[in-house]
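Researcher: Let's try something more involved. This one mixes different molecule types, so please make sure each is placed in the same coordinate frame as the others.
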Amino acid sequence: MKRRIGFFDFTGCEGCQLTVLNLEDTLLDLLDLVEIVEFREVMSGSGGELDIAFVEGSICRPDEVERLQAIRARSKTLVALGACADTAGVNALSHFRDLQQLQRDVYGDHPTPAGRPRPLSAVVQVDCRVPGCPIDGQEFLSVLKALLMGKPPELPAYAVCVECKLAELPCTFDQGIVCLGPVTRAGCGAICLLGGDRCRGCRGMIDNPRAQPYDRILVEHGLSEADILREFRTFNMSGEKGQ
Amino acid sequence: MTLAVAPPGTDPSGTTLWRPLSRNDIDLLVRSLSHAYEVVGARERRGRVVLDRIDDPAELLLEYSPKVHSPKKFLFPNWEKLFRFRLGGKVLLESERAAVPRVIFGMHPCDLHAVQILDDCLFEGEADSAYRAKREATILIGVDCVPDEHCFCTSMGTDRSAGGFDLFFHRVAEGYLLQVGSERGEALLRRHAPQVASRPGEPPMPWQAKQTGTGLRFPFESLAPLLGEAYDHPIWKAVGEKCLGCGACTLMCPSCYCFNVEDRMDIDLEGGARVRTWDSCQFDQFTRVSGGSEFRANQADRQRHRFFRKYKYLWEKHQRTACVGCGRCSRECLARIAPTEVLNNLFEERALPALKSPGAEYHPQLADIVAVEDLTANEKIFRLRLDGPLDFSPGAFMAVSVFGLGEAPFTIASAPGSGAEIEIVVRAAGNLTRALHRLRAGDTVGVRGPFGSGFPLQEFQGKDLLLVAGGMGLITLRSLLHAILARRADFGRVTLLYGAKDVADILFRQELLRWHREGLLDCRFALRAENNGWGVLRGDVTKLFKDLEIVPARSVAAISGPAAMYRFTNPLLLRLGFSEESIYLNLERHMKCGLGKCGKCRINDICVCECGPIFPYSRVRHLKEAIER
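Model: All components are placed in one shared frame. Result:
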């Protein structure tokens, strides 16, 4: 019998769900394996028990907390899909803004009891995660395949540098451009570096970032402590708060 | 002819297999090869040189910087299916199809050496079939390179390739010279470039010395014992604290091959592949075992492991260092961890504090024999490790003791500045030397010295050098030659005239031939034996004093041989126009005490161990005893 899966979104851009929809080559094969019973971007909801719930977005409002808890209650496995769900992602930047001003900017004259954006794990138990902003489609597939095979999905433990080297790309540091690749978890295929940018750390840090040598390298490249915090802030607020 | 040494790629009659060709010939060859093989080579991609498929021969770069990923990716790719499997009912295993026939067009010498290391490791025991399939289906074509500031191939002996390739292109002013390295290469040439194959050969080009930006300050053979003593050294902690654990060093390394194996399922979950991917000893999880414990969790230990594996473990296993000095690890290291820096630091630190004279007065210090090797049927070379580095000039000697049998002087055969290790050559002649011959690595001898004053190297700078050796006299000149070659650019033309009994008696044969081929010095041999195997000039060394391209006014001569030799060579040198001040003689005698006391080495009024054994002719010409018999 096909496993029932659902896709849900909270505070986020829905780019991760779009990445899933963009897996055009394999989407039909995927439908042979699973039954997608909920996916707001393409269908109306049906409810019921789920084998796997993929949840995108951060949790900001009390009603979001309730809805997430309800999804959790009817799902055997709950997966945080993308940076917003995994670490609160760029949403966490709002921690540096005045909350009331933020509420006025977002909701205008419709007062809404919105709090600071939080990752799913602050509210419910998360079984596994697909990091990134947005997620990597192939990584989504391998997480799904692992779950269907009944084994815990594994994310790369090594850094983006590895995939950057494998792609034979020049190191941005050689051009004096600071990059978060050395401490950011691989799995994206160094896509930003392939596109000519640098790594901004959207996939979160590896389990064991070598903070001291990395910090030394950033300082050597002229970054102050404030600059370094700003570098990490975009996607790694939780890391900063941990320091 | 004074030299009849057959360089590689030549047959005994002296016909060379080096054919001249133009870039246009190469383009035609590439085009022809493309019909039968996938041709990969260096080309530009997004502003960076990469080894990639060549579709248009014009794209192929033959001169390119060492800042390029290694050809390992073609022979041992990062992602490789070992086999496929189907699930559902009976499990079916499907072997992977054979490797694509491929030509790697443009491998630098270091990368050719790295393939030998991969061969050592992957063919050992049960041969790795995936590697072997690719290795067999891949033609290796070498090209020369210009080292950059990270290269240290000259320290590892990998800046040249004597073999391990099918074809090798040497750049010359008017095009290229093609050297064939295998029968497969010759057949390839006949099939794909018959017009080049039929051309008459040219003599091999003189090889230029390569200049590298960095290097080891000691011979690479000392690496394994050096590391053997450095397991608990604090340097690994310092390196570990710099390391980001990104694994760039091992991924870039042309000889690192550690891997991980995983099953990757198809999207239908009914089949999949067992896939091999590169792994790295620098990664978290590399040594993780079930239950989660990691038995090399510390980055310092991981870096130490990398160094030990490269320079000690695999050396001990295969007698080849697993590092080819390509410099990729340091070139790509964001934390700027450079092997030469680490190893030189270790070497120099161990070498400190400077110890100028081991052994006080007549009491020797103990020294370990690190290595013993046969040089000829009668001569062995011993590498001794002392407690500290020695300061000496070439020509100095050590007093070596075998307790119970006594002590004897031996000229130092290695170069100054090699730290705490020295080499001596011992001919089994008497009781003490025969006893020395029975010793093995790990045994202990006594040493005192260094004694005596050697060749004044400073005064040789900027001059052409004529070295004349007779028999064992070469040993002293070998130290001088090593010192010269360490700073080759500081000296002009170097010519060595060497007389010996027969081919088998020539000391340091391979080393001399290598230097000769590399154009570092001009070696000429004379042998006393009839019909010697090399067909070189028959007679003594004086026969070589012909056709010397030497301007005596800007040259110095260093002569080392039996006393009888000087009687003939001195007049020849003076007749050539050498001044009495520019001829240096080695007057080794039985220098017993080394301290100018015992009197055994006195020649007339001078004491050899105190003032010599190296003297300018002007200083000793009145000593009839020294130079007339």
